Amino acid sequence: MRFLTLIVKNCLRNRRRSFLTIFSLSISLCLLGVMAALYYALFFGAPPTAQARRAVTRHKVSIVFPMPIYYREQIRKVRGVEEVAIWQWYGGAYRDSRDQRNFFPRLAVEADRLFKIYLDYQIPDEQKQAFIRDPAGCILGRSLADRFNFKVGDKILIKGDIFPFDLDLTVRGIYSSEESNEDTLWFNFKYLENALRNSSRLAAGTFTILATDAADIPRISKEVDELFANAPAPTRTESEYSFGLSFLSFLGNIKVILMSICGAVTFTILLISANTMAMSVRERVREVGVLKTLGFQSSTIMGMILAESAIIALIGGVVGLSIAQVLCIGIRQGPAIVDQTKTLTIQPPVLLALLGLSMIIGISSAIVPAWNASRTNIIDALRFTD
Description:
Layout: H1 4-12, H2 15-43, E1 54-59, H3 71-76, E2 81-89, E3 106-109, H4 111-117, H5 125-133, E4 137-141, H6 142-148, E5 155-158, E6 167-175, E7 185-188, H7 189-195, E8 206-211, H8 217-227, E9 235-239, H9 240-248, H10 254-282, H11 285-293, H12 298-333, H13 348-375, H14 378-383
């Protein structure tokens, strides 16, 4: 701390280079911060409060295989199950199917059970009752409604692709939720029942389970799967949190992808910082000789150079992580890829780890230049003319 003023002045002696270095570090740390926040949210974060009591039962082989509707009543008998609802993926195409901006989930659900399970859905009671009463009714998330400017009473036509009929729906309500995806269209399961009456295609895609206690989810999952272990359609039951993450597996190994990006960014930061410190120390070789002449020890000189690099890296880290936190807020307001992005933020453990990493990178990048400078004898340092 005795030489803090001198260290700070050395950081500012070439302000353009210091600014560009901090800017480069902040951009890199910003990307690293968002990736680390996403990784933490996906694999270490706790599920939202409303989601913690929910589990999903699907076909053991793949979600594309249906299950008999009568499974619902058998699942309901499992101890700890408060409510069960069927939902089925409809698919279909809205407007131009080639435009990905027109894509959103379209799911058939038992309307009278939906709000008993998704307790976090906020919707006016009259809209809720209208949806339950209308076999051709649907409800939309607030985000989806804003995206397409849908309003209560609007007609929505969706062309069938998986099922051999089109959907002609009437918007009966718009729900909002702080913890769940708001980009989903739910329509009344009675529509499927009427369209597929006496057809073998009338089946359940998944069963959503509401448990009386979140702690019962592992036991309920095990008992439900044992119940249908020898059935023609065996099941796999998992928490809704894990079920949501399973969709990401279609993109590949998300852990490896995120860690690879983080590793590449960290290596880039190290190269940037090392290059800057090498240039900075090379310009001050004669200055090191003067400091030694004045009685500065080699360890002191080395410590000053390392501290200078650490300060620059820390400033870059603080700026970059501040920008990353703002980006996380923006991601939370956008469409939810998975429910975890609705609460995406840089948690304190991640923040401290990344700030520590930025300092470690700063110190590591300056070790070799600092060591070489501190080992240079006075005569060679004063003769240096480069």
